[in-house]
Structures are given as structure tokens and as C-alpha cells.
């Protein structure tokens, strides 16, 4: 891929292709390179947008609503709004590249930009997740804890930076 990534994490390099502001809110599209043996993020769901992933190279292990799918180059998967999911590159030595669309974009661009710079502990992460609950939620017990920890953080004077 050409050019510097928009941002990098421990597991990924991310290039924004089209953003919500660029597309009038229609789509946020990014190309993501998952490093070999990347770790699963927490299971998550999106209450008001759907996602579409196309594997350009390598393989991705996707867990969607509890079912595992091993996808290879050329394959796609659609994640409806509200469906818990997570994904990772299971290869020990080959990166995987995915084109990832979020429709409608909502605040996904902003969520990704701020989330990529987020540091701090569980209280800061809860404040962040609570602020962006329109685009990102954690299912189950973790999802119950987020607003409680965010409220605690607010009472302690913590603010999302």
C-alpha cells in the first residue's frame, strides 16, 4: 500500500479511503493491514450501522454472532447492525489486508481517529465507549459496565480528551 497509514495500532495499520465527512455521511471506508497473529479485539456491535469486509489478501478469522468464519482473499462478509462480532488475522507469518466499509458513516471516522490515540486505563476507555455508544457497544457484562464506569469517571472529574 502506498503512503503512510492514517494511524497504527498494535495489531493494525489503517488507511482511510473515504470518510464520513468526505461522503456526506454515506460511508466510512478504510483499508486495514492486520499484522500476523493479531489479537481479537473485544466482541462488539454497532447499533445503527452495518459493516462490509472484503479480504484482499491473507486470511481473517471472524466470529459473528458466535459462529466462526475463516475468510480468504476474495471473500466478503456482511455484518448487520446489532450483531456481535470480532475478527483477527490467524496467520503466524503473513499479514492480511481488508477493505472495510461502514454504512452509514455516522461518527465512525471520528471514533476511529480518537480511538487510535486513546491512552489510559479502563475508566478512560469506558468514557470513550460511552461517548460513542451510537456507533460502538460492547455486548453482555462488559456493555453493562461501560455506563457505570463512565459515570464513576465523570464523578471523579475525568473527561474524554
Question: Any descriptors?
Answer:
globular, 2 domains, alpha+beta, three-stranded antiparallel sheet, Jelly Rolls, six-stranded antiparallel sheet, 161 residues
Could you provide a short overview of the structure?
This protein is α+β, with helices and mostly antiparallel strands and 161 residues long.
Describe the overall structure:
- It is built from 3 helices and 9 strands.
- By secondary structure, it is α+β, with helices and mostly antiparallel strands.
- A hairpin with a 2-residue loop joins strand 5 (59-64) and strand 6 (67-72).
- Helix 2 (122-131) packs across helix 3.
- The longest helix is centred in the last third of the chain and has 16 residues, at 140-155.
Please state the CA-atom Rg, rounded to the nearest Å: 16 Å
Number of helices: 3
Number of strands: 9
Largest sheet: 6 strands, antiparallel
State the low-pLDDT regions, or none. Answer: none
Average pLDDT: 95
Task: Provide the CATH superfamily of the largest domain.
Answer: Jelly Rolls
Under CATH, the topology of the largest domain is which?
Jelly Rolls
Element pattern in H and E: EEEEEEEEEHHH
**Alpha-carbon distance between the two ends:** 31 Å
Helical amount among residues, as a percent range?
Answer: 10-25%
Identify the CATH architecture of the largest domain.
Answer: Sandwich
Task: State the domain count.
Answer: 2
Give the CA-based shape: globular
**How much beta, percentage-wise?**
25-35%
**Biggest sheet: strand arrangement:** 1-2-3-9-4-7
- Structural class of the secondary structure composition? alpha+beta
| CATH class category name of the largest domain | Mainly Beta
